[in-house]
Amino acid sequence: MNRTISSKPQLFLLHYAGGDRNSFRSLIERLEPFFQVETPELPGRGDRMAESFLTNKQDAVADLSSQIKKTRQKEVPYLIYGHSMGAILGFEICHAMESTDPPIYFVPTGYPGPGIKKNVPIAGLPTPEFFAEIRKLGGLSDEVMESKELLDFFEPVLRADFGLLENEENFPFFEKIQTPIFSVMGKSERYAIHIRNWKNYTHAACECKIVNGNHFFINQNDNYLSQIIRNLMSAEGINL
Questions:
Q1: End-to-end Cα, the chain, rounded Å
Q2: What percent of the chain is modeled with pLDDT above 90?
Q3: Would you say 171 and 88 are in contact if contact means Cβ atoms under 8 Å apart?
Q4: Within a 10 A sphere around the Cβ of 74, how many other Cβ atoms?
């Protein structure tokens, strides 16, 4: 991750299931002029390909929190953004960081907050059934779903990430955070109508938006998302 000392605020991008530190290239390009963009990633992919996958949510939260703490420059404010799995983990990371170094904002996308999604476990399904469920959930872009080579590459990472979220040993997390929330979902996402559920999980301000697109609306709305993130910082009196 970026360790250059700078007066720019920091932005931590948390990837979705099957993703890595390069999952937000277009968003990074738009925001790098204004932020120190940090891209922590879980083991078993990208620069951490040689490491073993994590098997439960608590370990994933601890791993990503450790990476954030190592690169935090406490003289500047920061924001946490997470898409899908990144939003699930980011919510708990915000809570963990608040006691000593709270973020300015939490921006979850592609996830309606705790207690809404009721998906059956899929990590252990045979390959055809597994990817059939992934397609239903909108868990992969159309580009990946149409390529056998890419599916073969992503299958072990996806199984690990869904297994991590489905692990029966995971502790339920329904705490409220002190950090303001700005949530965005795609209009055709299955649970988009429940996006205002996020208001139940912060003591601070909460704004929710629905935009055109599916679970991967982020790929066509990187300009919109980058503007939201910049505006949130500006609204806090932080010049970019």
A1: 21
A2: 80
A3: no
A4: 10
* pLDDT tier, 238 (very low <50, low <70, confident <90, very high otherwise): confident
Is the pLDDT reported for residue 1 higher than 60?
Answer: no
Average pLDDT, integer, range 197-225: 95
Name the phi and psi angles at 12, rounded to 5: -105, 120
Residue 106, strand partner residues: 80, 181
Between CA 50 and CA 109 the distance in angstroms is: 29
Residue 8 has pLDDT above 60, yes or no: yes
Strand order in the sheet with 105-109: 36-38, 10-14, 78-83, 105-109, 181-186, 206-211
Confidence of residue 6 (pLDDT cuts 50, 70, 90): low
Task: Give the angle subtended at the CA of 84 by the CAs of 82 and 89, to the nearest 5°.
Answer: 60
**Which among 171, 213, 200, 53 is positioned nearest to 112, based on CA atoms?**
200
